Amino acid sequence: MFFLKHVKEATFTRLCKNKTILTVNGEFPGPTIYARRGDTLIVNVKNQGNLGITIHWHGVKQPRYPWSDGPEFITQCPIKPGANFSQKIILSDEEGTLWWHAHSDWSRATVHGLIVIWPKIGRPYPFPKPYAEYPIILAEWFRQDVEAVLLDFLRTGGDPNSSDALTINGQPGDLYPCSSSETTKFIVEHGKTYMLRMVNAAMNLFMFWAIGGHEVTVVGTDGAYTKPLKSDYVVISPGQTIDLLFKADQPIGRYYIAAKPYNSQPAISFDNTTTTAIIEYKGYKKSSSPPVFPHLPKVNDTSASVNFTGSLRSLATRAHPIDVPKKITRNFLFTLSINTLPCPNNACQGPNGLRFAASVNNITFETPNISLLDAYYGRINGVYGTNFPNFPPLFFNFTASDIDESLETPLNASEVKVLEFGDTVELVFQGTNLVAGIDHPMHLHGHSFYVVGWGFGNFNRSKDRLSFNLVDPPLQQTIAVPKNGWTAIRFKADNPGETLFHYN
Question: In terms of Cα–Cα distance, which of 189, 186, 192 is closest to 282?
Fold first, then answer.
């Protein structure tokens, strides 16, 4: 299967103002790619923009072919303006919804779209086939040029400017100025069941999402099926995908779909607005009554967030088996921290005039100017080191309310962790309260992992491992590590190459 993607600028009108943005094929969101399990796709990306760009196929494992994975300076250098690059996308066991997006600078804010992977021909869904399927792409709209937002963030060292609107399928919805006439609308028939294929394409925002008056059933996440999970709302991490079903079983009328941020850290500035779309039943007669609005959890409702995420379970059937590693050969504990770096004359906009940074095990990754994959295969010395630590360099009360400021400065380095083929890994992400505790969305390229446990506070290996779910943990590539808490994952290192693990 062959696809052609032209990365080019296009003009859109949102929030009463025209703006030129970077797109694929002139669309925002970009075009959906449709495929079947096990397909191989060739996507020719032609860069007609004015900056280098890469495209990542989020959630596609690319077995034994990391060259097309897409992260800038990890598996490839950016595609230069005017150049093109053919990427081979190898689907293996993924089934459900994934997505593609730019993986260079902040271009992903507008350069993104869905990947829909159907079962192989002749194989059914593990649930009754829905009457129809609709995309739900949650994203952000910035009045300012996104590249300017990034450059200002890098220059000042403070929080990046917040977006000016949230969007569903590219439209802000009724609650924003100059937006009602273009609000995304889905027409449904009473009694029919529909599948919604959802991705959170926002830059850094977790989101609560719901449909007024309707319950939904989650049936998949990150390209893998889950046990059916009924809920009145969904919480979705940046970069995560969720497949869900809903039945149009309410009185004929109009109902809002709504999404708003979840944020557990009040010191962070963010776009605290609500985007909407409309579900309209066939046969609806125009009325002055507004659509039914859903009940969404409060913006800082951590219990609602972790209760939903912690309820996901793998389907784990004969047709869709799982294989949770039981015998672990490599154990890691990675701390996730917000940090600060020195700034000339203490003139930055972070705490105490310093510059914000982030680290894993107290190392802030320093992006090289050549791709790590090229350096590895070309045996080019000096591009990266292989001494990334298995554990944090210093143990302390990671989640204490008052941590010595001397611990806030990380090491800048391009260090990698080397695994042997076949290693079975248990990795615990430990959030810290350095500078400010936050929820951390973590994404692994090239592999899926089983989320076997989570909790608040400091991970206690002897106690917390006793409660690990090794029976039907969800299989994911993107997971939220709760604020001042921990998340444990397991996976098998069975896909050779350079694999990026990062804050999404």
Answer: 189
Contact between residue 303 and residue 265 where contact means Cβ atoms under 8 Å apart: no
The answer to whether the beta carbons of residues 480 and 206 sit under 8 Å apart is yes
* Among the listed residues 104, 72, 102, the one whose alpha carbon sits nearest the alpha carbon of residue 369: 72
Q: Round to whole Å and give the CA distance between 235 and 263.
A: 11
* Dist CA 235 CA 259 (whole Å): 9
- Tokens 């106690």 locate to 463
Amino acid at 252: I
| DSSP class of 306 | H
Q: Which two tokens stand for residue 370?
A: 């050549």
Q: With contact defined as beta carbons under 8 Å apart, do 82 and 47 qualify?
A: yes
Q: What are the structure tokens assigned to 309, written together?
A: 């995420």
Helix (H, G, I), strand (E, B) or coil at 181: helix
- Distance in angstroms (rounded) separating the CA atoms of residues 461 and 497: 30
Residue reference for tokens 């921990």: 486
Name residues whose C-beta falls within 8 Å of residue 381's C-beta, 6 or more positions apart in sequence: none
- CA max distance for the chain: 70
Of 46, 42, 58, nearest in space to 7 by CA: 46
Kindly report, residue by residue over 35-91, the tens digit of the pLDDT: 999 999 999 999 999 999 999 999 999 999 999 999 999 999 999 999 999 999 999
With tokens 């046969």, the residue in question is 283
From CA 379, how far away is CA 368, in angstroms rounded? 15
d(CA 226, CA 241): 12
Within 10 angstroms of residue 103's Cβ, the number of other Cβ atoms is 26
Name the residue among 389, 495, 501 with its Cα closest to residue 90: 495
Cα 267 from chain centroid?
22
Alpha-carbon gap, residue 452 to 474, rounded angstroms: 8
The predicted model scores a pTM of 0.97
Question: Model confidence over 412-452: pLDDT tens digits?
Answer: 999 999 999 999 999 999 999 999 999 999 999 999 999 99
The Cα-based distances of 164 to 9, 77, 145, 150 in angstroms read: 20, 31, 12, 15
